[in-house]
Amino acid sequence: MSNLAVHSIGKICSNENGTFIEVDKNYIPALQALDGFSHINVLWWFSEYDDERSRSVLQTEQPYKGAPEIMGIFATRSPIRPNPIALTATEIIQIDFEKGIIQVTFIDANDKTPVLDIKPYTPSLDRVENPDVPAWCSQWPKSTEESGCFNWEKIFNF
């Protein structure tokens, strides 16, 4: 097994002015040529769930209404997982290349959450034309745009 080392490249900043990714100063050069992409994939760390107990959970009781009674953690979007890594596709509003700040429309991460990486969203690699999902989640929104105004409270069992 290789020696893994993961380092934050910045953090999420959510406030009354919006949602931002603040890139650490030494990573600002990595933003070059990101302009022109409408969306990015953000890999971030579920830092509030980085403990031995959370990392040891492999199954959970029905987190979604209508889902199987017991689900493997890899079949969920739960923050409780062996490696608390999250992925969110989000739209870029603007980029301040000098300050290293990317304003985005939405990210399901809390303020001060560590960001691990940013990748441009490219349809040739990130879009699936006709994905299949289990029947219990087939009525969920079909896009991030639709998800923004969807009542997720009616879906979750917590």
TrEMBL record:
- Superkingdom, natural source: Bacteria
What's this protein's family per the entry? Belongs to the tRNA methyltransferase O family.
Q: Which GO terms describe its molecular function?
A: methyltransferase activity
Q: Name one Pfam family in it.
A: TrmO_N
UniProt-listed GO biological process terms = methylation
The answer to keyword tRNA processing applying to this record is no
> What species is this protein from?
Kineothrix alysoides
Q: Which residues form the TsaA-like domain?
A: 6-130
PANTHER family for the chain = TRNA (ADENINE(37)-N6)-METHYLTRANSFERASE
Keywords, A to Z? Methyltransferase, S-adenosyl-L-methionine, Transferase
Q: Which InterPro entries match?
A: TrmO-like_N, YaeB-like, YaeB-like_sf, YaeB_N_sf
Q: Which PROSITE patterns match?
A: TSAA_2
What protein am I looking at? tRNA-Thr(GGU) m(6)t(6)A37 methyltransferase TsaA
